[in-house]
Amino acid sequence: MTSHVLSVNSAGIVRTLRNQFTRSTAFLPEALQNARRAGATTVRVLWDERSRVMRITDDGSGISDFEALFTLGRSGWDAEVIAEESPFGVGFMSAVLASSHLTIRSGDRQASFDTRTLLNFEPIEVTPISGRNLSGTELVLTLHQAVTPPTAPAPLSQIAADHWHHLLCKIAAGFPIPVYFNDQLIPRPLVIGPEFIATEIGQVRLEDYALCKPFNLNRLPRLYYQGLPVVDPSGSRGESPDVLHLDQQRFRLRMPDRDTLIDAHQQGVVIHDVLEAVWRKRLIERRSELTPQDFVDFHWTLCNELKLPELLQDMPLSASMVSQYTAPLDLIDDGDAELERWSDAPVPGKDAVFIERVDDDYSALQGDPPSPLASVYALARSLPVLDTRVPDTHWARRRIVDILEQELGLSYDIKGSRKSGEFQSNWVTCTVMTCESYTISFRPTPSCDVPAKMHQQLIPVTVDNQAFFDADSQTLVVPSKTQNPGDALRQVSPYRDEWDMRHEDEFENDCDGVNNLVASLRSSSPHDYLESFLRQLRLDPKLLGKKTFAVRFDPKAKRLIVDRGGKRKAKRSR
């Protein structure tokens, strides 16, 4: 039997450290972090392009224990810092791995060495600084070529400086102490300030919090930990306008970079839930700050998103809650385009009747109720359609009527003289009926459960300008003022084949055919009737040539007779 104890392969750990840091520039946030922990009030970064030397200085308390600096897993910070921030004691290695030569000065001592010497476990001398006692810490790095952009001749040499400036702007945006790059102050727009809100997960700044404007609830804020950026655990694209400085006691970060949350997905859920609660509290406050109408106008959709539908109970309607039909529904096509937001007319009051949306779930091909007739009625009456997001607790939900409910008895009556003709094509076979107008009304059955006060508001309406297809009788009803009757053919057929390809040319030809048939039915004299009927014919000019023909009607045979004429006389040119 053998026994073993945990041992450490120091050379192996050091050898793999280079691959544990996510970025070769990890030394920059580490240097800022150390300066903050040392109580610095300023950090200065200087970059020399020619020598590829970066100098980082701060005015903090400095390094009291150089031995701790060269010891992995030992931070050297005092007990208070260790208790509050849990330093890992490996951050210094990010500077070692990024540079070929490194100099550290603090107080009256310094260490200057090739980094390969340290990585080979050779001794590093710490020597006195003659003639001065440095306040704070100075870090001088000769960076590896791979860490910096390729060196370029002037004026392109500015590229590297711009690179470092841009990187520092990202790193230091929420950093609590000022940072300078080549004597230029780095902007820090995300530093914790009076506009931040204290929560159990940290300090948060929410854009338009005071006005509680609509926001993306599923996108997490930009996250910061100890003043430095953290990778968004949700992986969402785009930069959020909100900012959250995470509570360092509540969250832990993965070493050595400290820019990724441990259990990131679960922590993202926690952050989302807490921020949702913050917004819910603010929304409740807004209800007491605004008039009922203003609250509904601004915030009714947020009430749903934040799971607070009870805030809308007994509230008035907003125009954005209501829509109306602007054209009769094309039964086969998607009816979405036929609904528009409520007009500038007054918003319906508590005595109004709303209708269920009439959509293409009702198929004329299956013989279901004629939804085009229902949408014509809704259009003629300007009946409001309630937005589906209006919660069930709102009073308007109890005022909705489904006008396609069979017991309501939706029906129509033809008015004036009527004429009928048969239309047939590759896609459509139906009767076309012209009339002066038709009246749409409801005839409720005794068992109809729609309250009388509501169905009494569904008064009859007479329509003379909208065609519709009656699926029960397979009839296209065309009143006198319909502008383009053929458009209603989309209520009859999708004009799509088995591969779901739309045949628009076929539809246009059928549309012309229906329009010509309607014109012939509306003709007031035999001549007009015959002329409109002949317009439906598709003539081949190659067959006709320059011949002319006389067409007459044989009343006994009840058919047209064509007499062949002579050649057309050519017009003389002047």
Distance between the termini: 125 Å
Shape: elongated
Strand order of the largest sheet: 5-4-3-6-2-1-7-8
Q: How much of the polypeptide forms β-strand, as a percent range?
A: 15-25%
Number of helices: 14
Range of helix content: 25-40%
The main sheet comes to: 8 strands, mixed
Low-confidence stretches: 362-367, 566-574
State the total count of DSSP E strands. Answer: 27
Q: Over all CA atoms, what is the radius of gyration?
A: 40 Å
Integer average pLDDT: 83
State the secondary-structure class: alpha+beta
- Summed up, the domain count is 4
Description:
The chain has 574 residues and is of the alpha+beta class. The protein folds into four domains: 176 residues, Heat Shock Protein 90 (2-Layer Sandwich), CATH 3.30.565; 93 residues, no CATH class; 204 residues, no CATH class; 47 residues, no CATH class. Helix content is 25%, strand content 22%. It has 14 helices and 27 strands. Strand 9 and strand 10 form a beta hairpin. Helix 2 packs antiparallel against helix 5, helix 8 runs antiparallel to helix 9 and helix 12 runs antiparallel to helix 13. It is elongated and about 130 Å long. It starts with 9 loop residues before the first helix and ends in a 7-residue tail after the last strand. 29% of the residues are buried. The C terminus is likely disordered.
